[in-house]
Every structure is written in C-alpha cells, then in structure tokens.
Design brief:
The chain is α/β, with parallel strands linked by helices. The protein has helices at residues 42-50, 75-89, 102-110, 138-144, 155-159, 180-188, 209-213, 216-230, and strands at 2-9, 12-19, 24-30, 53-58, 95-100, 116-122, 165-171, 194-200. The chain has a single domain (2-230), classed as Rossmann fold, CATH 3.40.50. It contains eight helices and eight strands; from the N terminus they run E-E-E-H-E-H-E-H-E-H-H-E-H-E-H-H. An eight-stranded mixed beta sheet has the order 1-2-4-3-5-6-7-8, with helices on both faces. It comes from Duganella vulcania. Pfam families: Hydrolase_4.
Length: 231
Amino acid sequence: MIVDFDVAYDGHVLKGDQYVGADSNRLLYLHGAGASTRRGHHLLRGALQQRGIGSTCFDCIGHGDTGGALAQSSVASRTRQAQAVVAARGVPEPLAIVGASMGAYNAVRMTQSHRVDALVLIVPGVYTPSAYEVPFGPEFSAVIRRERSWSDSDAWNILSRFEGRLLVIAAEHDATIPLEIPERLVVAATRAQSSRLHVVQGAEHNRLWSLLEEDPVAFAAAVDMVAETLK
C-alpha cells in the first residue's frame, strides 16, 4: 500500500508518500538535487517494502509534485523540510534515514536534531558549511564549484558522533561525487556501531539501482545489505 500525503511548510505544500511496511515504518528517504524526485527511487523503496520496511519520502521544494522554484530553497531548507515532514507524519524515532546524493548530506544533518540509529548514504554529496543557507542558484553553484569545496564539510565531524549503523553506497564511475567522499564518510564514523562502504561496479551517479536491477542476484544482495542496516 502507498499512501499519498501533503505537509504544509513555509507557504508551500510538500507532496509525498508513504510506502507502508508490514514490519517497520520509521524510514525517512531523502532524494537528491537537480531533476531528482521521490518517484525516481521507487526501485529501492519498493524492494524494501517487500521486505517489510516502509518508507516516507517527499518532493523537496523545486522538485516533482511539490513544485515551486529552486531559488526558494537551499540545502538548509531541505533539512528543515525533512524535519517538518517527520513531525507532521509522526515518523517514529529512532529514525532510519536513506539519503541519496544531496539528500545524504541532509540525512547526516538530521542526526543533529533527531535520534537516528541507521544511515544509508547513496552516492553521497557533502557540502562546505558556507553553502548551507545559500539559496539554490548561481551563488550556490559558485560556492560548491570551487575546487574541493567539500573538503571542509562539517559532515565528517557530525558523523564522528554517530553511534548507529552506517552503510555508504558509491558508484564506481561517479562523475559527480569523487570516491574520496564516500571513503572519508566511512572513516569519519569512528563511533558507529557498524560502518561499511559498498562500491557498485559499473554504476554511475544517476544509474545505480537501475543498473543493479539488470542483475537480479546483485540487486537482491544490495537491497538485503540496505535492509540489514535499516532494521
């Protein structure tokens, strides 16, 4: 069962849905930037639902069914949008969070405001603190396009305090996220109950789960890895 919902936020209506799970419904799923929407993550969410794990996901401002202009949002706003959805939908804590691309950084930031005992970061992006509150647009792009702008991210320090289970999934041929970022995220999580890096061979930034789907055995193994982290 999939339940659609609306959440009012700062003059907008965040459009989302819950894939209802038979065993657990504490998973928050955060999509990425660009043209990303919640609907682009149906493969993993559907496979998790089949394993009893429900998920709540929404289209951030400027994306998908929520619409609006990206300039009305920022990385920080995305975190606050996620907090609003968790509160409005009563997603139970401790949360489990899956974050893809930019959503991975929002997932890390959510550990500062909520009890989180499981993080799955997929092709994860991280950002310099100076970019956090900058509205999306030319100024934001200028900040993050500086050479290695992500190197002074606060993600490393935040993750060093995380005590739950961490799984980082990277794409072998990711032209957007250098492998150094997922590697460093795993290394930073020194207090984590468990931490693991899985690199999907042949995958690209925007073609990971669809590639895995072509090999049912590899797809099932990757989903099982995610489910084991989340449960």
